Amino acid sequence: MKKNELQTQRSKPLTEIDREIFDYRERLARLGLDLVQGKVKNIREIRHLKKNIAQLLTLKKSKLAGNSVS
Predict the structure, then answer these.
(1) What is the full per-residue pLDDT of the chain (70 aa) written as tens digits?
(2) Rounded Cα distance, 26 and 30, in Å
(3) What is the pTM of this model?
(4) Which residues lie closer than 8 Å to 27 by C-beta, 6 or more apart?
(5) Which CATH architecture has domain 3-63?
(6) 3-class DSSP state for residue 64?
(7) Whole-number Å distance between alpha carbons of 54 and 57
(8) Residues 6 or more apart from 17 whose CB is under 8 A from it?
(9) What is the residue extent of each domain of the chain?
(10) Do the beta carbons of residue 21 and residue 56 sit within 8 Å?
(11) Which residues are within 8 A (CB) of 9 and not within 5 positions of it... i.e. 6 or more apart?
(12) What are the distances in angstroms from CA 55 to CA 7, 36, 39?
């Protein structure tokens, strides 16, 4: 996720962040199945999805704690 995308994520409410995490996890599951079947050409996308999920979870945790992440 690019820095400007992460900045826009910070202003979103927790429900939207949860929805995006859910969507990323669904997409990751589909890519995992496609990888096993040999349909995936760009395996780097899996790494990017995992990174995006981790960034969103960190953002969510900091919002719940009341801290601001910069």
Answers:
(1) 888 888 888 899 999 999 999 999 999 999 999 999 999 899 999 999 999 999 999 999 999 998 655 5
(2) 6
(3) 0.86
(4) 49
(5) Orthogonal Bundle (1.10)
(6) helix
(7) 5
(8) 9, 56, 59, 60, 63
(9) 3-63
(10) yes
(11) 1, 17, 20, 55, 56, 59
(12) 11, 26, 27
Structure tokens given for 58: 């960190």
Q: What is the pLDDT of residue 38?
A: 93
**What would the two tokens of residue 42 be?**
């760009």
Q: Which two tokens stand for residue 32?
A: 């995992």
What is the per-residue pLDDT across 39-56, written as a single tens digit (0 to 9) for each?
A: 989 999 999 999 999 999
In the numeric block, the tokens 């790494």 are attached to 47
